[in-house]
Design brief:
The protein has 140 residues and is α+β, with helices and mostly antiparallel strands. The protein folds into two domains: 2-73, Isoleucyl-tRNA Synthetase, Domain 1; 80-138, Ubiquitin-like (UB roll), CATH 3.10.20.590. The chain is built from six helices and four strands. A four-stranded mixed sheet has the order 2-1-4-3, with helices on one face. Strand 3 (123-129) and strand 4 (133-138) form a beta hairpin. Helix 3 (32-42) packs antiparallel against helix 4 (47-56). The longest helix has 17 residues, at 10-26. It is elongated and about 70 Å long. It starts with a helix and ends with a strand.
Length: 140
């Protein structure tokens, strides 16, 4: 979002703020530092409401006098992801697996899903795309 503001891409920056709000809501985040950071990022677009919210959240001074929130990529790293499981190129299930899972472990996990077991016949080939999907190609 910071890059969008600096490049004068305000619509994109506002869209990113909306994504952030949706993410905070879905995670049921009630963290005061997260909400304060959100208010700071809203301030360039709605300065008066941002200042009012900043004051109500217990923020000291003016919202514009605060340091801009810093992005820390290490804090958003996820340990698992939803891997798509296909049979003959058609999505049949998704399974939650650890990031960086090996192909053998991904196969074992996918084969353990009941929706996949019932569709698998003789597997001729397995296509594994790390971090994305596994596809079982059968002879049927």
């Amino acid at each position: 979002m910071t890059v969008d503001i600096e490049a004068l891409r305000y619509n994109t920056a506002i869209a990113r703020l909306m994504e952030l709000v949706s993410g905070l809501e879905s995670a049921e985040c009630r963290s005061l530092p997260a909400v304060k950071a959100l208010v700071q990022m809203v301030a360039p677009f709605g300065p008066f409401i941002a200042q009012e919210l900043w004051s109500r959240l217990g923020g000291e001074g003016m919202v514009f006098d605060q340091a801009w929130p810093v992005y820390d990529p290490d804090r958003i790293q996820q340990s698992t992801f939803e891997m798509a499981v296909q049979v003959n190129g058609r999505l049949r299930a998704t399974v939650r697996v650890p990031v960086g899972i090996a192909q053998n472990d991904a196969e074992r996990t996918a084969r353990g899903d009941a929706r996949i077991r019932e569709r698998l016949g003789t597997v001729q080939r397995v296509v594994f795309v790390p971090g994305k999907l596994i596809n079982f190609v059968t002879g049927e």
